[in-house]
Design a protein that fits this description.
By secondary structure, chain A is of the alpha+beta class. Chain A is about 55% helix and about 15% strand. In chain A, strands 2-1-5-6-7-4-3 form a 7-stranded antiparallel sheet. Chain B has 5 helices and 8 strands. In chain B, strands 1, 2, 3, 4, 5, 6, 7 and 8 form an 8-stranded antiparallel sheet that branches. Classes of the chains: A alpha+beta (about 475), B alpha+beta (about 160).
């Protein structure tokens, strides 16, 4: 993979012409390079650059020379920005006394306005791997890039994304509590077990994406998208990640078994089995749900109804009701939208790897419209749920997140092709899911408090 | 000590960026903009392993040149080119280069903030040092190649 875009000699000269001066470079007779600042006259159409012979220095007759342009903008107290440089190589000849002409043959350069620094870095990870491989061979022992254990754990497991699990699980437990069913031990075990499920999914996602080339093909990952990249960076081996996947799934299964023993029910068993199949099948063959454009539905089902109803039935010993299901729908839609928006910057790499996500399949207009429709549906379900008496009136607190949804919706189109501009939008979208979930959690805390201190106060319309 | 001309030392200290030229195995000069760091004796540059092709070239051929040419990056009109022998220091790519962090920070204060968030871009902070022992200095007091440079050969005391 090229780390910078292809640049031909004429393109190089066109760029070189934008610099106020140029560094003329050749290798001297003693083998040392010589750099001299000159002001060249550049004619890209003719493929040449002319400049005065530098005084007191001998250029090699007929040898290869280069001209480099380099620019930064100093930013006092910070450093600099607007990095760009270009080099054009070619043969030099004397065209008239005192003047030399370079006939351009090849060019190379980088402009961070064209290839952002993060993308340039991602495009260069093959070079880093090559360097570490050479160091390892030289020293006879593996040399790898490193991170502190804390940072490595954070990056490998994508720990901050656990909010996707904690929100629905907490909500399920609180709804059960408002129905009079609460057991602290199994509530804690549910939170821990569900967290292991998500950690297993996060890590297995990287394993299967790495094995299918999706993460390698993605050169515009962000802090919210593109996977953990610990395998691509050489921080953790593929084998270690596979081992971690097995360990997390085993821990989740062990806690699931304990919950089955303590609070087993056909509903819990069904939710557990479906959750395992959806979780592993998200990226793993043969299902590969996310590769078939079903990732959003899988995430909606998994981190909406399955998590919430799973937590609910542990507390109620298998009893189901419409209330937790209806409460899970806005959460399901909003978490699916987190994935949906995070897939936008990944779409070119995903397409190369055959990952047919919705942003890969549909035009930007359709994707943005899809976001609008899904958020409207989330709030519509909330309103209908409250009006129908299925959700408590305090659940309307979730409407406080409408401005966040509007910010995301308005930010999508202008940043659609700018992964790093989209990063802020993705951050707001993640907060939308988190805050909406926390406000529903707060609503049920209010319900529990009201039940304790003012049992007669009506909290549901029509009840 | 290197005994670089004082004006060149001042230029090195002022420069936010310089142009490091290395020589490829085919004999082609390849130039990379890098921040020059000067400790009063040798000139240092650092390179991430992400952009380590230059390090491979230096291992094969240590003869390099570093020019300070950009008046915007130095705030000065004079220019210099330092020719020298480069050595790669990469015993510990993770942290070995940090001994020059305070010198780097003087030129790019934000680097310390970025380093604290190295989890976001871990390979950028896997780095090697390029130590350049100066051999010859070309100095243009008015910055113009129309005038021949003042040339200083750097004599080094035997170790």
């Amino acid at each position: 993979m090229r780390s910078t875009p292809e640049l031909d000699a004429r393109g190089g000269l066109e760029k070189l012409a934008t610099y106020p001066f140029h560094v003329l470079i050749w290798v001297g007779a003693d083998g040392y390079p010589v750099n001299v600042a000159v002001e060249a006259t550049i004619d890209p159409a003719a493929g040449v650059a002319s400049f005065a012979v530098p005084a007191g220095l001998d250029l090699p007759a007929g040898g290869e020379i280069s001209l480099t342009g380099s620019h930064i903008r100093p930013q006092p107290g910070y450093g600099y920005d607007q990095r760009r440089h270009v080099t054009v190589w070619g043969a030099v000849a004397t065209d008239r006394p005192g003047s030399l002409t370079l006939t351009a043959e090849r060019a190379w350069g980088w402009d961070e306005a064209e290839v952002p620094f993060f993308e340039y870095s991602e495009r260069s990870i093959g070079q880093s791997r090559k360097y570490f491989d050479a160091l390892s061979r030289e020293r006879g022992t593996p040399v790898r890039p490193k991170l502190s254990l804390g940072f490595l754990t954070l990056r490998t497991t994508r720990l901050p994304f656990l909010t996707a699990t904690i929100v629905p699980v907490a909500l399920g437990i609180l709804i059960a509590a408002s129905d009079g069913a609460f057991d602290l031990l199994t509530a804690v075990l549910t939170v821990v077990g569900a967290s292991f499920v998500q950690l297993a999914i996060n890590v297995s996602n990287d394993v299967f994406d790495a094995s299918q080339g999706a993460d390698d093909a993605n050169v515009t990952p962000t802090q919210f998208s593109g996977g953990s990249r610990v395998i691509q960076y050489g921080l953790v081996s593929f084998r270690q990640m596979a081992g971690l996947t097995v360990a997390f799934f085993a821990a989740a299964a062990a806690i699931g078994l304990v919950l089955m023993v303590l609070r087993g029910s056909p509903a819990l068993l069904a939710i557990g089995v479906i959750g395992f199949v959806v979780g592993l099948g998200y990226t793993a063959p043969p299902l590969k749900l996310v590769y078939r454009g079903l990732g959003e539905i899988a995430v909606a089902v998994g981190f909406g109804p399955l998590m919430l109803l799973g937590a609910y039935v542990v507390q109620t010993r298998g009893a189901l009701s419409w209330e937790p299901f209806v409460a899970s729908v806005p959460i399901a839609l909003l978490i699916a939208l987190v994935l949906y928006v995070n897939e936008i910057p990944d779409r070119r790499g995903d397409a190369r790897a055959g990952k047919r996500t919705l942003p890969v399949r549909f035009s930007p207009q359709v994707v943005v419209t899809g976001y609008r429709v899904a958020t409207l549906a989330a709030y519509a379900v909330l309103l209908v749920g409250v009006v129908a008496g299925l959700l408590p009136i305090p659940a309307l607190l979730m409407l406080l997140t409408v401005p966040l949804a509007l910010r995301v919706e308005r930010g999508l189109r202008p940043n659609y092709d700018n992964p790093y501009g989209l990063m802020a939008v993705m951050g707001v979208n993640i907060r939308l899911h988190l805050y909406a979930g926390l406000l529903l959690v707060a609503a049920y805390v209010l319900v529990l408090i009201a039940q304790a201190v003012a049992p007669g106060v009506p909290l549901f319309i029509g009840r | 000590m290197a005994n670089l001309p004082e004006a060149v030392e001042r230029l090195l200290e002022a420069a936010l960026v310089g142009e490091l030229t290395v020589v490829s195995p085919s004999g082609r000069p390849i130039t990379y903009p890098l921040i020059p760091l000067y400790d009063g004796d040798k000139v240092y540059l650092t390179s991430s392993t992400l952009f380590s092709r230059k390090l491979e070239h230096i291992r094969a051929n240590p003869r390099v040149a570093l020019s300070i040419t950009d008046p915007v990056a130095t705030g000065r009109s004079d220019r210099a080119t330092i020719q020298g022998d480069a050595r790669i220091i990469d015993e510990d790519p993770h942290g070995g280069w940090e001994r020059l962090l305070s010198t780097w920070e003087k030129k790019e204060p934000s680097i310390v903030t970025f380093l604290k968030a190295r989890v976001a871009l871990p390979l950028f902070f896997e780095r090697a040092l390029i130590e350049v022992t100066p051999r010859r200095v070309l100095y243009w007091s008015d910055g113009s190649a129309a005038n021949a440079p003042e040339t200083t050969t750097i004599e080094r005391e035997a170790a």
